[in-house]
Amino acid sequence: MASRLRAYIGTLRQLEILLAVHEHDSVTVASEHLHLTQPTVSMQLKKLSDALGTPLYDQVGRKLVFTDAGNAVIKTAKEILESFELLDMHLADLKGLKAGKLRLGVVTTSKYFVPNLLGDFCRLYPGIEIELKVANREQIIERLMEGLDDFNVFSHPPLDQRISLHEFLPNPLVAIAPLDHPLAKASKITFKEFTHYPFLIRESGSGTRHAIEEFMKEHNISLNIRMTIESNEAIKQAVISGLGTSILSGHTLAFGGRDNICELNVAQLPIKTNWHLAHLKAKRLSVVANTFINYVNTIGRNRLLKVLHTK
Ligand code: PGA
Questions:
Q1: Mutation test residue for ligand 1: of 106, 112, 134, 136, the one with most atoms within 8 Å of CB
Q2: Among 71, 83, 194, 213, which residue's beta carbon has the most beta carbons within 10 A?
Q3: Of 155, 215, 246, which is best to mutate to test ligand 1, by the most ligand atoms within 8 angstroms of its C-beta?
Q4: What is the pLDDT of residues 11-41, one digit of tens each?
C-alpha cells in the first residue's frame, strides 16, 4: 500500500474531526460538538494535513476556506465513514438483533422527508415494521407526553426537562409567493414591505405557525392575515392562485415541488429552526429504537442533506 495511503488508516478520528469543522465552518463550534478542546481539534487537523503533505484549509479573517485538497479529503472522508457505519449496522444485523416494531409520531410538515428517511431504513432492516402517525404539533406533543411512540419528530418541540431531544436536520422557514407577485423579482425586501401583502397561515396548533408567531413577537411585527389553512399543500395551492404569500418550511418546496412558486428574498428570513427526534427521558429505548436513532444520526441524515443540496 502506498505510504501516503497508510496515513489515512490511523486517522479515522481525524477525518471525523475534519468533517465536523467543515460542517460547522468553525474550529470552535466543532470542538464544542465533539466535546474536545479547541487546541486538540487544531492539532489533529495539523497532523492530518502533515500526514497528507498538503494544507486542508486557509484561515481568511474569521472564515475557513477549504483548499481543493481539503475538499477532496472531505468527500472521501464522508464515503469512508458512511461505509463504516453501514458495516457496523450489517454486523449488528448479523448478530440477529433487528426485528420488531418502530412507532413514530411526526408533525405534518415532516411528512415531506420522513418517507425518504424510512425508505432506506426499511431496505436496511426489512424485519422492522413501522407504524407512522402524522398530526400537527399540538397533537404530537400529546402523544409525546403519553409516551405512545418510540420517537416524535418536531422542529418546535416543547421546552420540558422530561424530554430528550436529538437534533438532526435544519428546517429553514422561507417566504413564498406566486411567480407574478409584485415582490417576486425584488432582490431585497424589507420585512415591513412583505407584511403589507395578504398572508396565509397554518392553523393554531401547527409548529410552523408557532415559529412564525414567535418570530413576529420577537421583532414586534404583525402580519396581514387573510386566511388560515390547515395544510402546507393547500397553502401552496392558495399561494399559486394568488390568494397571498406565506412562510413555510423549505422542505415543502425541496421535497414537495416548487412549480409556479418563488421564494422571496425577505430580510431576516429564513427563520432558522431544526428538526429533532424527541422522546421522554423516562422511556427506555428499544433495540429497534436505538437502531433507528443511530441510522438517523448517520446515514439517514447524510442522505437527506444530499437530497436537499441537489434540489
Ligand atoms: P407543523 O409542525 O407541521 O404542525 O406546522 C412543524 C414543526 O414542528 O415545525
A1: 136
A2: 194
A3: 155
A4: 788 999 999 999 888 999 999 989 999 999 9
